[in-house]
Amino acid sequence: MSNIDTTCVNAIRVLAADAIQKANSGHPGLPLGSAPMAYELWANHMNHNPKDPKWENRDRFILSGGHGSTLLYSLLHFYGYGLTMEDMKQFRQDGSLTPGHPEYGHTVGVEATTGPLGAGMGMAVGMAMAEAHLAAVFNKPGYEIVDHYTFALGGDGCMMEGISSEAFSLAGTLGLSKLIILYDSNNISIEGDTDIAFREDVQARMRAFGFQTITVEDGNDLAAIGKAIEEAKADKEHPSFITVKTQIGYGCPAKQGKASAHGEPLGEENVKALKENLGWPEPDTSFHIPQEVYDHYAELAKKGATAETAWEKLFADYCAKFPEQKKLWDAFHAPVDAAALDQDEKFWAKAEKPIATRAASGNVLQYIKDLVPQLIGGSADLAPSNKTEMKGEGDFSKENYAGRNLHFGVRELAMAAIANGIALHGGLRPYVATFFVFSDYMKPMVRLAALMKIPTTYVLTHDSIGVGEDGPTHEPVEQLAMWRALPNVNVFRPADVTETEAGWYLALTSKETPTLLVLTRQGLPQLAGSSKEALKGAYIVSEAKDKDNLEGILIATGSEVALAIEAQAELAAQGRSIRVVSMPCMDLFAKQSDAYKESILPSDVRARVAVEAAMPFGWGDYVGLDGATVAMPGFGASAPGGVLFKKFGFTKEHVVETMLRVLAKVK
Fold first, then answer.
1. Contact criterion met (CB below 8 Å) for 648 and 536
2. I need a labelling partner for 339 at 20 to 30 A (CA). Which of 200, 296, 324, 550 fits?
3. What average pLDDT does range 616-644 have in this prediction?
4. What are phi and psi of 102, to 5 degrees?
């Protein structure tokens, strides 16, 4: 290690320690221990250009151990990604560009929002899959315009979380050779030595998954780290896992190798001792970085600019030689044309016969796969049930990265993380699928998608007690409430083909919001009044005959809309003037103007009944104190779906009875 390399590694450590100490909050252990491997990777093995952080062919770096964010922020600061010293001094402060954990879209150079341990590993697998697919679609001999690596750095916590095992098992199966994992192995977690809960042979596990495994015994040996990275790149058949043995809190005499270094500031005296131990100039001065450090990083940054210039020339030659591929490239990297889709009569085709909304969704998918070539996706081993296979598009596999159908196996949590990675990579629009009840397994990663504002589509079928014989383990009753509680997610439960098409339109044209399509297993009738108005979240699907003397409103979603219309007809026969509102998406309706909301749910009509085969939680805003719900009282049961709907009160008679009771109460 040269003197300047040593100084630049220690600059990362010192800056990280100072930022954490000033904030009096943070995690110094990882930055102090991992600084050498991060420096070696960014300086000598990773193509990145601070002057163009979104360069398509850059290598991706994800700090899966997001608690060690000052490691990443220090690199971004030194390389000139726009983080100033003032930003470093504002670490963890309100409105700063240096929040406690890295946030995608907030800080330039951050490739993914990380913090939940293991999540970054799953997203890295998704990025590597995206690179492999785009390379298979676009590269020509001598014109490898998609040719980059995905690196992820994480520690023992990332390896303990089950999501990493799910994702790495798939990565090994797929032979994603441009995925390289750096394992910060320091044998310390918050509660102490990892031996108390984690004694497995991690390398043996990774080999079993299909990874090449490499070990660096000394985490300060830049030459050994560099050699390991080059060895990883040389393997064209397997992803690589590099174990780098480090000491948490390295360089701080009182904290090195101890659990206390993980998640608390070192203390002013210990920061000074760290600097003295590292031979840092002016150890009593905070945020002091010698100019030679900035000069050296500026020189290193020029490598990335040179690499991008060479790529731009290659890409220009490619576009000239393969103009049709250039058109396809532009299509892959452009948003879906919302105006064209809105006017596409074939997309909005009507149906006449009853059909399950999962099947209607499958029909939409077969049509849009040709309109949206960047669409890629699949299911957690449930494609035949979810209706999510794109016919004739091939399976994505180690033998065929050009395939558009992804097979995730029974790995819902990793599937959702991988979808995040694919979306974050750019150039592709992912969808993933499973049964609605199993969306519980996906929750943490969908939450990250919402936080990162990436418009992934989730196809979630078998949406209610209509699942039937499989019983309460497979019948979702609380999931709608759970997902509706999540910010920046559109939960869309369509009632028929037209509303299903509206749901897909919403998903395809969304720019910053994930969409959950919640679909039935059982067939549903086509509704005469269903329309694109579903895109407003709620609309009048069946108006009262005497709308000027409106007495009450039935509000329903999905399979229960047809039931509400049946009840409306019965109530009309009794001389009652009742409107039916279909509310496929509460999230969209909440964003409408007050005037529109009032036109759908007039405030002076207090007799309201919500009908939904799920828990009633969340319906209070719409039915008010005077209204009622026809909803699930608890878990379902094992019996044919039709039997269960009757058992739990989803009948015309019960809906009518409930509305009459509310009308009497209001009167």
1. no
2. 324
3. 97
4. -60, 135
Residue 256 has what pLDDT?
96
Q: CA 223 to CA 293: how far, in whole Å? A: 20
List Cα–Cα distances, 41 to 36, 44, 81, 258, in angstroms.
9, 6, 17, 26
The H or E element containing residue 356 is strand 355-356
Among all chains, which residue has been given the structure tokens 């001389």? Answer: 575
From CA 611, how far away is CA 626, in angstroms rounded?
A: 15
pLDDT at 128 over 80: yes
CB–CB of 517/460 below 8 Å?
Answer: yes
Give the number of domains in the chain. 3
Q: Which amino acid is at 214?
A: I
Backbone dihedral angles phi then psi of residue 489, each to the nearest 5 degrees: -135, 135
Q: Please say if the pLDDT value at position 302 is more than 90.
A: yes
Same domain membership, residue 31 and residue 179 = yes
Whether residue 414 is predicted with pLDDT greater than 80 in this model: the reply is yes
pLDDT band at 438 (very low <50, low <70, confident <90, very high): very high
Residue ranges making up the domain that contains 215: 3-305
Residue with tokens 């074939």: 346
Residue 579 in marked binding region:
no
Chain mean position to CA 493: 20
User: Is 273:261 a contact under the CB 8 Å cutoff?
Assistant: no
CA 545 – CA 207 distance, rounded (Å): 69
Domain check: are 238 and 115 in the same one?
yes
CA dist 583 and 419 (Å) reads: 28
Helices marked H in 182-290: 202-209, 222-234, 268-278
What average pLDDT does the segment 504-522 reach?
A: 98
pTM over the 0.85 mark: yes
Q: Are residues 104 and 225 in the same domain?
A: yes
Please give the full DSSP string across 68-114, using - where no structure is assigned. Answer: GHHHHHHHHHHHTSS--HHHHHTTT-TT-SS-SS--TTTSTT--S--
Query: Could you tell me if 387 and 291 lie in one domain?
Result: no
328 is in an annotated binding site: no
Tokens standing for residue 635: 């878990």
| pLDDT value for 2 | 82
Is there a single domain that holds both residue 482 and residue 398?
Answer: yes
Token readout for 557 is: 């979603």
Q: Residue 117 annotated as binding?
A: yes
- Give which of 258, 266, 261, 225 is closest to 243, Cα–Cα: 225
- Identify the CA nearest to 358 among candidates 462, 234, 266: 462
What 3-state DSSP class applies to 584? coil
Could you say which of 261, 280, 305 is where a domain stops? 305
SS3 299: helix
- Residues 157 and 116: their CA atoms lie apart, in Å, by 10
Q: Does residue 73 lie within any of the structural domains?
A: yes
Burial zone of 222 (CB within 10 Å; 0-12 exposed, 13-18 middle, 19+ buried)? buried
d(CA 176, CA 611): 47
Residue 435 β-bridge partners: 461
Tokens of 460: 């979630």
Residue 116, marked binder: yes
C-alpha 634/C-alpha 478 separation (Å) is 9
Please tell me whether 122 is known to bind a ligand: no
In angstroms, the CA 451 to CA 66 distance is: 15
To 5 degrees, how large is the angle CA 438–CA 439–CA 443?
135
Instruction: Please write the tens of the pLDDT for every residue from 376-390.
Output: 999 999 999 999 999
**What distance in Å separates the CA atoms of residue 266 and residue 349, rounded to the nearest whole number?**
64
Task: Check the annotation: does 462 bind a ligand.
Answer: yes
What are the catalytic residues? Answer: 412
Asked if residue 500 and residue 417 are part of one domain, the reply reads yes
Distance CA 649, CA 404 (A): 43
CA–CA distances in Å: residue 438 to residues 107, 162, 478: 33, 16, 12
Nearest in space to 432 (alpha carbons), one of 71, 33, 126: 126
